[in-house]
Amino acid sequence: MDLFSLVEQTLAGMGYELVDIEMSPGGRLLRIFIDIERGINVDDCATVSNQLQRVFEVENVNYDRLEISSPGLDRPLKRQADFERFAGQEAQIRIRLPINNQRNFAGVLGGVRDGAVVLQTEKGEVALPLDQVEKARLVPKF
After folding, report:
1. DSSP bridge partners of 108
2. Which end of the chain is more exposed for a tag (fewer CB within 10 A), N or C?
3. Do the bridges between strand 102-113 and strand 116-121 make them parallel or antiparallel, or are there none, so unpaired?
4. How does 8-34 read in b/e, with b if 16+ C-beta sit within 10 Å?
5. What pairs with residue 29 in β-bridges?
6. pTM above 0.90?
């Protein structure tokens, strides 16, 4: 089982959502971003850290340091479900191949339609192919 699937399955059993995994070169630092509907607090991070340490020991996952964190206010959007869940919120999206000489887009998410992320920009609605999304993040409102 790959690391992403192992962590995702463990977190799902605990009621958390896996947002992302970052690993430093050489695998020395393993940083895991988690979320839950009510938001993440320090106790959540400690609980998940303790559980994952046990799972990693059993599954022989090698790392030197494990960090558990919330995704933050500028939460990354990785999966189709993320784009649908946060419809109506402002986001910034960068795509791999330009559309009309543009790779960076900002606007309000409109969900996913026909395999494309719908984004309402200042210039109107744009459909960005989901498989071309390189990076996407929510824009925090203060």
Report:
1. 90, 120
2. C
3. antiparallel
4. bebbeeeebbbbeeeeeeeeeebebbb
5. 65
6. no
How many domains does the chain contain in total? 2
Amino acid code (one letter) for 28: R
Q: Is residue 96 included in any domain, yes or no?
A: yes
- 8 Å CB contact between 16 and 34: yes
Q: What is the CA radius of gyration of the chain?
A: 17
Q: What is the DSSP string of 49-113?
A: HHHHHHHHHHHT---SEEEEE---TT-B--SHHHHHHTTTSEEEEEEEEEETTEEEEEEEEEEEE
Nearest to residue 18, comparing CAs of 3, 29, 27?
3
Name the token pair of 119: 């984004």
Which tens digits make up the pLDDT trace of 52-87? Answer: 999 999 999 888 999 999 998 899 999 999 999 999
Q: Which of 69, 99, 121 represents a domain boundary (last residue)?
A: 69
DSSP 3-state assignment of 14?
helix
Range of the domain at 38: 3-69
Does 74 fall in a domain? Answer: no
Q: Is residue 85 part of a domain?
A: yes
